[in-house]
Amino acid sequence: MDPTWNPEFEPGLAELADLAALTDRETSDATAPHALIAKELWTSLRRLGVSGRMLVMGEDAEVYAGLPRTERLISPGATAELIGLVPGSSWPHTGLQLHQHPGTQPDPFDLVITNMPANDLVTRSAVGSARQWQQHAINALGSIGLTSPGGLSVLLASSRLLDDTDPYVRREMSRAVELLGALRLPAGTLRRAPGNDGTVDLILLHHRGSPGTTPFTESTPVTLDGRDVHVNQYYDAHPDHVLGTLTSRDNPWGPADTTVVPGRVGLATELRAGLNAIVRSARARGLKLPADAADLDVSIDSMRESGGRAPTRPSAIRAQDLGEARAVVARLRAQRRNADPITPDHPAPSTSPGPEPPGL
Predict the structure, then answer these.
(1) What digits encode the pLDDT tens for the residues 75-119?
(2) Strand (E) or helix (H) holding 320
(3) Does the N-terminal or the C-terminal CB of the chain have fewer CB atoms within 10 Å?
(4) 251-273: string of b/e by CB count within 10 Å (b at 16+)?
(5) Within 13 Å, how many C-alpha atoms sit on residue 31's CB side?
(6) 216, 219, 220, 222 alpha-carbon torsion, rounded to 10°
(7) How far apart are CA 182 and CA 260, in angstroms?
(8) How many Cβ atoms from other residues are within 10 Å of residue 110's Cβ?
């Protein structure tokens, strides 16, 4: 190899890296780690006293709703949008009745769990990175918009949502929600395939009636292993909520990013300890959740039809894009349709369309 060769000057390599990562993603199943995360999450949700109606969106939605393997009708790894009543039974939620999301409805949910699309995908190209960032920003704001006052939003999001240098999206989030807590999972928790080992945050948000007390809107510059990166102020104040060792890694086509090296303790044990700490903190702050469950006759569409354009620079999301996203939510809330139950005769989609190839 020519020692003077520099990948930065080779056109198209970043886009090819994105495509290779997406191709490898098709053969990498994350259902088992999703089930592990969901089990620990639901233990904490019960301790918080969650009740009412729920919406579960994204990859392995049945898994995050808590259905046992024998009752799942959707192929592993497929995406879906499902509604149901928050289960009162212990894990797994045997016999839980779920309905396909009908695409329209006005009423919000008491619990929204969103497994964001391609949240562990490591995009290298500028266009792919910008598109992924916009998609995650809109999904975060959309999930918040679909949650009732006093309810909970749970996000599994790329670490960029909290770490990005531009705080605009987080400031928009903070206008409606309080951060109960977040846990940064070790790199490769969901997949170990190259380009699919990005760090993922498990984020719990409460739709408060008063200003939040846990700052999370700003990210601060730090130096890790000799590389300059940005880390959210929440993790600066709660380093124990990083489930491993926070470090950095090189990016041949852009600035370095953060990663988390797994520790010696198993993921389930660390998740349990971290979620227990979040629950204790929420109780100490007097968390109050809705007590009454609404009728299961409505649901709300997700933000996937926003149609916003990619921002002009990877680290920015424009105010007009978020305005367009909110307009979509408002329009969908003005429409109604009865929910159809998932049955063997009318199953949910069995295949996932997958994320759009970044930059291609």
Answers:
(1) 999 999 999 999 988 899 999 999 987 776 657 899 999 999 889
(2) helix 319-333
(3) N
(4) eebeeebbbbebeeeebeebbee
(5) 18
(6) 110
(7) 14
(8) 25
DSSP class of residue 60 equals: T
Q: For the residues of 17-53, what is the DSSP string, one character each?
A: HHHHHHHHHTT---HHHHHHHHHHHHHHHHHHT--SE
Question: With left for phi above 0 and alpha for psi between -120 and 50, is residue 327 left, alpha or beta?
Answer: alpha
Tokens of 236: 């600066």
Q: Helix, strand or coil for residue 67?
A: coil
What average pLDDT is seen over the chain?
Answer: 79
Quote the pLDDT of residue 211: 65
The residues facing 53 across adjacent strands are 85
| Beta pairing partners, 183 | 202
Cβ pair 112, 291 in contact under 8 A: no
How far is CA 270 from each of CA 56, 181, 186, 276, 285, rounded to the nearest angstrom? 24, 14, 10, 10, 23
Predicted confidence (pLDDT) at residue 354 exceeds the cutoff of 70: no
Nearest to 251 by CA among 351, 126, 124, 144: 124
Is the pLDDT confidence value at 212 over 60?
A: yes
Pair 303, 329: CB distance under 8 Å: yes
How far apart (Å, rounded) are the C-alpha atoms in residues 283 and 296? 28
pLDDT, position 356 = 39
CA angle 149, 154, 158 (to 5 degrees): 135
pTM for the whole structure? 0.78
As a whole number of Å, the end-to-end CA separation of the chain is: 28
Q: How far apart are CA 316 and CA 220, in angstroms?
A: 17
Rounded-to-integer distance, Cα 100 and Cα 189, Å:
28
Name the nearest CA neighbour of 299 among 338, 330, 326, 329.
Answer: 338
pLDDT tens digit sequence for 125-144:
787 788 888 888 999 999 99
Provide the 3-class DSSP secondary structure of residue 229. Answer: strand
